[in-house]
Design brief:
The protein has 213 residues and is α+β, with helices and mostly antiparallel strands. It is built from five helices and eight strands, in the order βααββββββαβαα. A four-stranded antiparallel β-sheet has the order 1-2-3-4, covered by helices on one side. Strands 7-6-5-8 form a four-stranded mixed β-sheet. α1 runs antiparallel to α2. The longest helix has 25 residues.
């Protein structure tokens, strides 16, 4: 069927790595079985299990929404633009006329055994228009997007550190990268929220909480 203005040709469309969803799903199942199984065991004799069930259904609903959001995430290259649909539903269009070069590199961190591919799409002034990280995108997907842009690709086959990558291409880092304090604060916040959630569920189930004599 011939393409029209309302049905543009898509050079390529890629989606994030599905293994991330599978790993997250298995983690949720294992944690849910251990946590809610123990709480149900203590709550059923007390008759407080309906509250736990409502919480569990709520977490399942949140996981379903996150899964659907993830499945709707993609990057596509059309004859006119690169279209990026993010996890939160926002859509960004980058005209191909702005794309001057793409950079394909392998980066690694000191604690990681394997390197991670990085694709950096830049304009004529060297500014970042798009960046794809191998953490979320497969090597094949990254290569397809680079090829579909139709512009020269600077290929760096020898792995470099993330620090060297960001130093060599200023402005390529996201706002949350290179901020150790932010990482520590995020870890502490996740721990605090998780602890508060467990204590809240125990209280909801009528399980006594003993913090000491």
């Amino acid at each position: 069927m011939a393409a029209t203005d309302h049905d543009p040709i898509v050079f390529t469309r890629v989606v994030p790595r599905r293994i991330l969803v599978r790993n997250a799903l298995w983690s949720y199942v294992l944690i849910s079985l251990a946590l809610f199984g123990s709480l149900y065991y203590l709550a059923i004799p007390r008759g407080t299990w309906p509250g736990l069930l409502s919480w569990q259904l709520g977490t399942m609903l949140l996981c379903l929404v996150a899964y659907l959001r993830y499945r709707l995430t993609y990057i596509e290259v059309t004859p006119e633009a690169i279209v990026e649909r993010g996890f939160l539903g926002s859509t960004r269009r980058i005209p191909l006329s702005r794309v001057a070069t793409t950079v394909l590199a392998e980066t690694y961190r000191s604690h990681a055994p394997d390197s991670t591919p990085q694709l950096l799409v830049r304009d004529a002034a060297g500014r970042r228009l798009l960046r794809m990280r191998g953490t979320f995108w497969s090597r094949a997907a990254i290569r397809r997007v680079a090829d579909a842009t139709g512009v020269p690709t600077e290929h760096y086959p020898d792995p470099i550190t993330s620090r060297e990558f960001f130093a060599g291409f200023p402005g390529s880092a996201y706002w949350f990268e290179h901020r150790p304090a932010l990482f520590v604060a995020t870890v502490l916040a996740v721990f605090a929220v998780s602890l508060a959630a467990v204590l809240g569920l125990m209280s909801l189930a009528g399980i006594p909480i003993t913090l000491g004599d």
